[in-house]
Amino acid sequence: MRRLMMAVALSCAVAMAAAAAPPAGAATAEPGLVGAWRLVRFEDTAADGKVSYPFGEHPLGYFVYDPTGHLSVQVMRNPPIAPFAQAPPSEAEVRGAYGAYLAYFGTWRVDKAAHVLHHVIEGALNPRYLVNPDQTRPYRLAGDTLVIEINDPKTGRRQYRELQRVR
Fold it and tell me: Does residue 42 register a pLDDT over 70?
C-alpha cells in the first residue's frame, strides 16, 4: 500500500511539474511581450469598409502575457452598460452584459519569424473561442505599442487591436 501511495504521489508531482512548465516558444521567443498591456483600440472593419467598435470607441481592457506562457484577456464596453434594474436581472439585461464583455484565458506562444502570436484558449466567456482554441494573431511590437491585426482575405474583414504597455 505504501508503494502504491508513493507511486501515486510521484505521478502527481510529475504531472504538476509538466502542467507548470511554460509552453514551448512563449516568453523566450518574444520577451518584449511579457507584461500587462492596456487596450487602446478595438476596431473591426467589414468587407465594405465600414468600421465598427464592438466595445465602444474607448474600450477598457487588458491583455496580460506572463513569463510562464500564460495569458488573460479582458475587454469591456466603454461607456459601460447600465446597472441591472432588478435582481435577478432580466434576460435582456443578461444578454446586454454578455455582449459588453469579452474574456478568455490560456497560454501563449510566438512564431517570431512569422510575427504570429498564438493564443491557446483554455477557457472563455464565449464558448465560440473553444471551437478552435489555437487562435493565431499576426502582431507588430514597437517599443511600448503592441498591434494585433488580422486581415481575412476570404471575407475582406479586418480586426485591429492596439495596446500600450502598462508601466
Answer: yes
